Amino acid sequence: MIRNYFIIAVRQFRKHLLFSGIQILCLATGLSFSLLIGVYILKQQGVNKQIRNIDRQFLIKSIWKKQNMGIDITTLGPLAKILMEEYPGLVANYYRFDPVANIVSVNGKHFREDISIGDTSFISMYGFPILYGNPEKPFANNQSAIISEEFALKYFGRTNALGERISIQTPSDGARHDYFISAVLKKLPFNNISSFAISKTPYQVFLPMYNNKYFQGGDQGDNWANIFMVSMIELKPGVKPDDLDAPMASILKKYQPDFVRGNLRTELEPLKDYQLNANDRSVLKMIHSLEWIASFILLLAVINYVNIHIGISAGRLKEIGLRKVFGGARTQLVFQFLAESLVLTGIAFIISLVAYELLRPLFEQLLKTELDSLSHFELKEIGYLILLTLGLGLTAGIYPAFFLSANPIVESVRGKTDSGRGALTLRRVLLLVQFSLSALVFICALVISGQVKYIFHENMGYQRDQVMIISSIPRIWDSAGVEKMERFKSEIDQIPGISSASLLRYSFGKRRQYQCIWRRRPAH
Fold it and tell me: What is the pLDDT of residue 444?
């Protein structure tokens, strides 16, 4: 019987080829965009989920009484370490790092790289996979380094780079220091440990914090005056974040320097939801907006399907009447219409998969992210797709299955619907909703387009293509380093093509980094 339902559904598809094609096109369009949006949402919700013991991992955030005194995602250098040492019953582990940028050199190759200088608990605490090296002791000593798989390929042409050396000119003495590679980190999905909010780009080199001869003034992990340390802790099983409020307050009262006293309090931010809640929950708000957009698109596709079915219902009513005359039960008619809807939705689903692969590169470029190809879908994602397709097919088939099949035999044979069932009213309501949603989406698109145009084309008071920026790498914090930057600025001012130059300590989202900005003299 089920086979017969689908055979008749295919015949109906061939009989009403134009209308079926329109229905399939609308359903395929809705499924394609919903699939793209859904994969992006799942990717954002899955950030940090691969981290070991993610439910017990927390970022120590700083709430400063005086604005601009510090930033919220960093705190006092030794805080996480002292928390574990003085409260071992609450804290299971800790990890701190200082993100920097520097020029890394290997055999005549020189590239600017993002570097993470942190505790050696980096691998054991989060369970990140090691491609080469000892997972139990990835840092062989204080002059060793862990590099990413991408870094190894770029510099050495192979992933196994154990024992190779990289050279970095450190700000501690201005000299080049060698670090030998003791482990290669397997490529990781985006997470807030190896790609933190400061740069949003993956760190390529990981150096141990202590005795690495990188910073001026010695190790930053024991310096209470250092307020720019990204610090994270792992709680013991059963310990709640509120249990750390009093211990953190006690440690701050005991150790904080005078310039911080009274200006700082700390709180724990779950890493599990950090990506969604950071920056005033901007990612979460965007996800909710995308969910509404996907829902509207699917709703428009379903309404269009139902409207077309209402339009061609007169021809189907005679078929319904004859089936009832010859003993056909209403249940059989319901299954028949649902089978037809599922066949059309199934065809649309196949088309949407092809459209997804074709549109994926465009959306990746637009959203500045990577979307999984169909070959990399997990069972959970495949299950979501199947449920979405079945749900869409059943929803689209509700009207013809339950309303048309309920039409009286006499009215059906005559090809007329039962006016008491409000078919005309339903169609008017559906058309009203369809056009209203279309107008709403169009208006939202215009508003968003206007905002984007304003951001990228509003007059900022200077010509962007005439302004150039040079960053100071490595960062030199002493008076000699600042004097060197001043001399460089003076030399820049002497160039005929330069209109003016200035030095900035903070600029364009880069923290603790001197930058020289100059404006080129317009050509006449």
Answer: 77
Amino acid present at 86: E
Q: What is the mean pLDDT of the chain?
A: 82
Residue spans per domain, the chain: 2-47+278-455, 54-271, 464-520
Lowest mean pLDDT among 231-235, 320-324, 359-363, 446-450: 320-324
387: number of Cβ within 10 Å: 10
Calpha distance 226→218 (Å, rounded): 11
Amino acid 515 reads Q
Q: Could you tell me the end-to-end alpha-carbon distance of the chain, in angstroms, rounded to an integer?
A: 83
What pTM was estimated for this model as a whole? 0.77
Q: Where are the alpha helices (DSSP H) in 185-271?
A: 245-255
Most confident by average pLDDT, 141-145, 424-428, 518-522 = 141-145
Is-cis flag, bond preceding 474, omega within 30? yes
CA-to-CA distance for 333 and 167, rounded, in angstroms?
76
**Cα–Cα–Cα angle for 127, 128, 132, rounded to 5 degrees:** 120
Mean per-residue pLDDT for 412-439?
67
What is the spatial distance between Cα 27 and Cα 348, in angstroms, rounded to a whole number? 6
Q: Are 254 and 224 in contact (CB under 8 A)?
A: no
Beta partners for residue 235, in sequence order: 91
Q: pLDDT of 235-264, one tens digit each? A: 999 999 999 999 999 999 999 998 888 889
Supply the DSSP symbol for 204.
Answer: -
The pair of structure tokens assigned to 51 is 């981290």
**What is the C-alpha to C-alpha distance for residues 259 and 265, in angstroms, rounded to an integer?**
14
Q: In DSSP terms, which residues pair with 146 in a beta bridge?
A: 183, 206
DSSP, residue by residue, 312-376: THHHHHHHHHHHHHTT--HHHHHHHHHHHHHHHHHHHHHHHHHHHHHHHHHHHHHHTS----GGG
Residue-wise pLDDT tens digits, 313-339: 656 666 667 666 666 677 777 777 788
Half-sphere exposure of 406 (CA within 13 A, CB side): 12
Measured in whole angstroms, the distance separating CA 336 from the mean position of its chain's CA atoms is: 42
